[in-house]
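Schema walk-through. Below, the input block comes first and the output block second. Nothing else is stored per chain. Lengths vary across the set, and this one has 199 residues.
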Amino acid sequence: MLRFFLLFLTLQLSLFGLNMLNWVQQHLVLPWTALLARICAGLVTWFDSSAAAQGKVLWNTATGFGVSIEPGCNGIEACIVLFAAVMAFPSSWRHKLVGLAAGFAAVQALNVVRVISLFYLGQWSKEAFDFAHEFLWQGLIMLDVLVVWLLWVRAGARDRAASEPPPPDEPPAPPVVRPSVTPRAPSGTVSSSLDLSPR
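--- output ---
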């Protein structure tokens, strides 16, 4: 448990440090954030043709209202926490890769819902937008990370239990040793005489 905790903290600190580098921000974080805005705009246009994306901003072309997807809202920080938790936990590399892929998809899918909901909450009520942005969605995203990780751990334990032979319910019985039978001599003598009268 201590090893998991220390490795989890080390990976988080290292990845958050890398995430703050200018090169990483320019070449990885900002392009991903712009792609996220385009994905959200593409989904919204299925039912609202006034949505559009420009850079990292999802905005309404009719009203001019928009939400900018800033650091902390692009799902990268939540994915870092999940990555550190998965990599720190003892498991096979195949199971780790499955957990990272499924976890990234789950976190980013919920993050798309967050951005779109904030886009409409901001047009409806600033108070509702502020509460959802600062408190509600922050907690829901981290809860999503925790639930995904726990399901991943449980799936790994179930796979290990299925691959291992079940332990015997009872120890095997000791072998039965049969005593050897030796013929015994008769205790009395039998007369060969035909005379059965007492003597």
